[in-house]
Each structure stands twice: as C-alpha cells, then as structure tokens.
Description:
By secondary structure, this protein is mostly helical.
Amino acid sequence: MKSLEKILDAVMRFLMAFSMFILVAFGTWQIFSRWVLKDPSTFTDELLRYVLIISGMIGSAYCFYRDEHLALTLITDRAKGFFKVILNVFIEACILFFVIYVFIYGGWKLSATATNVSSVMRIPMKTLYLIEPFCGVLIVIARVLRYLQAFSKKEEEA
C-alpha cells in the first residue's frame, strides 16, 4: 500500500510540475511574441488555456490525496462521538458519489459524445475532456487509500 501511495504521489507531483513548466515556458513565449515581436502566438494562447485547466484538475486531485482540499468544518468540528463518525462517513460518501458520478461518469460521457475540435491546434475535444475522468479516478484512488490507512491505523491501535 505504501508503494502505491508513493507511485501515486510521484505521478501527480510530476504531472503538476510538468504542467507548471509548460505554463511558465509557453507563457513567457506568449508575452515575448506579443510585446517584442508584435505578433502574438495563437497556438500558445490556446495551449495555455487547456494546460491551465489540466493543471487545475490534477491539482484538485492532489489536494484530495493530501487531505488539503477546501472543507467547511463548522459542524464537524463541533460534533462529538458517534455523531461525528456518522457525519464524516456521510460526507465522504457524498464526496465519492459526486466524484464518481460527475467526474468519472459525466466526464466519460462528455468525452464519448464530443465531436468538435479545438479551433487552433485542431485537437479533438474528446481527448481534452478525458482529463476529468482521469482526475476523478485519481481522487477515488486517493480517498480509498486514505480509508485503508485509517482502518489499518485503528486496527493497530486496537
């Protein structure tokens, strides 16, 4: 289980670092071509738009993996005992349902039915839409790993 966590962590960190490198490199070229050459690159404009979306999606999956995602804990911080456990299980079930239904199922359906292509790079949009189910699978794997960690920790304590 630890090796799977290390692999997942390394893959997500690499993908985020690579997408940030692309954003910086092509963003610099976009600025240079616009201000110095007076001929803005339309290719980099579209590329940066798509890479920004991809890096945001992978970043959200990584936040779920690290348990550093945005959470409103007003009620869960005040809850105690059995009610807190039930509330946390309900919240995690809602998160998993949302991710599986919207990200994985909805993203897969979206990419399966897309017929258009991007305007400048001529990439089929269905390949760009596949980032949503990919990140959904990463989120589900991350949450399952966290559940397994929590259960193995409780078994060791008992």
